[in-house]
Amino acid sequence: MPSILILNGPNLNLLGRREPGIYGHxxxxxxxxxxxxxxxxxxxxxxxxxxxxxxxxxxWVQEVPGRFAGLILNAGAYSHxxxxxxxxxxxxxxxxxxxxxxxxxxxxxxxxHSYVSLAATGVLCGFGARGYLMALQAMxxxxxxxxxx
Length: 149
Ligand code: DQA
Description:
By secondary structure, the chain is α/β, with parallel strands linked by helices.
């Protein structure tokens, strides 16, 4: 079964009580449980990690080759600032799907640019917690396409 890594960046550990008008009431633990269930349905083994530290996220992205078939990444605010995460993402051959709960294009201009997007296979934003499930579905389709080639 292919293994997928789901990484969440800074402040996403606060989901459920952080600006619920923007990010909703679903907690990160809820999202991780939903992803495990959806992964099982899709035949994907899902590993979820969260960090507030940019360096730790970079190290986890570097773990992908050889260990995971794909990466789903919500880098939070680091999406908009981190050339280091972009460089780590660019070193991957595996598919990378970027997720944001909110529609970053409806928000402040500084959120409308993502370094991660420059290395992403695809981007999902504005679908709330459901975006992670959509990302897993997209990942399953991408991996199935690659398998059939
Ligand atoms: C976010 C959007 C970012 O701008 C913000 O800094 C976050 C969460 C999202 O999921 O909508 O922390 O990545």
